[in-house]
Amino acid sequence: MSRAEEILRTGYARLFAAETVFLTGATGSLGGCLLYKLALQLPTRKVFILVRGSDKEAIEKWRRNMPEQSEAIAGSKKVHFVLGDILKAEFGIDPSTLERLRDEVTLVIHAAANISFAANISHAVKNNCLPCLELAQMVSQFRRLRLLIQISTAYVSSFLPDGFVHERLYHLTDDGDAEEELANILSTGNSPQTARFSSSYAHAKQIMERLLIQRYPLLPVLIVRPTIFAPSLRDPFPLYGPEDSTPMNKFARFFFSDRGGTQVWHATEGHRTGANVLDEIPVDLVANAILLHGAARTKGIIHLGAELYMRRTFDEFLAETRNHAPPAVQRHLPTVVFTEDRSTPQCFLAELVRAGTRDWRFDCGKSYWVKQVAGPLSLEVCRQEVEQITAKRLQEIYRSNALDSKL
Q: Thioester reductase (TE) domain location, by residue (predicted)?
């Protein structure tokens, strides 16, 4: 019987009772959600979290992002702070603490990232590729390690044409050697390949995946590729998620602000409007799936996206932004015009949300089994729940914009 079959038959709680977790990025959106679940929803033995600065600064960030849950997390007696910095050798962790991690940790989740789509490729590599490789070197010496979970992005495959994207590593036709590409970026500060990706962040993660697999073929690794994060559906509370971590929230704010203008968007190839899938998934469902795969000790590459949640087209998203705006605002919302002529310049938002004009279909086949799991890690949703949270989400964005305009 496989671990996944064991989870479906007997549950996952007792599996987490044996886990000691090392988590990075615990003050971020996904990392904070993972920490909430590990500390409060699951019988995890212990959670070591890497923090930069001090434990007080981390707790303060939790208070801002999870005001009603932060005290319970800090008081759970499961959380142990590890001071360090992912940009330093061995993450700047002092030797005695690192030795303790080597002796105790069974599961590592690397959720720390610098998701700046405007950054150049050199900055993206230094923040989102090199730390992952440094961590892999570190955990190679963890004596009880069962799995390293590395968070990547589905858009590592954004150089591919629209269509079906499998859960595997794709190579550019002129990929060359990953080590040489990394060395060239670090020496010159740029790469001609970056323009082929949706962002420098996606390109940096693609290089990371290639090098991680190439350098550490015997390490038990799961590479997780989420699509676009949406605010949470349920945990730690509905609509949890800082705006910087939810791109379509930022999109909606800009969309509402463009009063009465006309926006030109490129229609996805084969369509005349925004009939392409806008691949969003709530951050708490991503966290649930990650933890279930961690319990099952899944290895390889997985996608986590709308195929596990609810598919919506870009047309539907635009209709929702209009339907949930107050009547006085609806009259001043911009007009969206789609064109099949790709030589026509797009509006600013189209360039900002480049995935909005593409139609990749990310295969999530390795995660279908998690939709059968009940309890706090469930991925089960109903359309009514999604519609209600979508309405609340857009109404909050509108209210936030209205308040900003009065400042």
A: 23-290
